[in-house]
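QA checklist item 7 of 12: single-chain prediction sanity check.
[x] sequence parsed
[x] length recorded as 247
[x] structure emitted
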Amino acid sequence: MRVVDTARREINAKTDIAFDYEEIKTGRKVTALRFRITKNTKAATPDAMGGDPRLGRLVARLKSHGMTEEAARTIVQAHDPELVEWAATDLARRIKGKEKIDNPAGWLRSAIEGDWRPQPTLFAQDQAQARQSELEAEHERQELEAKTANRRKADSAHEKAAIMAFIDGQPEEERQALEQGFREHLAARAIPAFVAKRFEGGLSWCSDPIIRAEALAYLGAIRPDFPTVTAPDISNRGEALQGMDGG
């Protein structure tokens, strides 16, 4: 009967039914088997809950407070595990604190079905909403800053290209005259000496954001053939001088 014994062990250990059997003999020979099938109250709970160990543990917790196996399974299968976990934990806390609860199983059922978890106050909800609004506003600000930075970078590249294309297209004598005139322009504009020194002719027409902006103004004023390029706002030179050496 090894095959039957193996099947019995498997079924009794992993399902919600159990069976036993007895041999019926005719003389010394086994001619039939009589099976007795019963409800299995010792089966492993996790397997009975579809193999989910957490659900099995929740069923066990509910049963430990007096709830029947069938009722515990029904509740665990019908409700959010987080809610069931909270109810079982809260009941254990109350019992540990000597709170009198005459019917723990009934309390659990009511707490789960009625969702007795503490709800956030209106003040907390307002705070959460305000925080969410702040996060959204910060996100929009960062997006705007990124777009502005990209636009400024594109404008800067366009300005540099316009200046250098114009300078490179001039005869050597004209380039030298423009460079000398630009040095005088910088001196007249009271540009800080350490900035003005960065202009050395050649590619240095765009060596600094302030120099580039002044070059746009200078070339646009003295040369009608210089293409129109929108110059950046450098009204606050103090900001332009901070960390923009390579602009």
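[x] summary fact logged: The chain has eleven helices and two strands.
[ ] second reviewer sign-off
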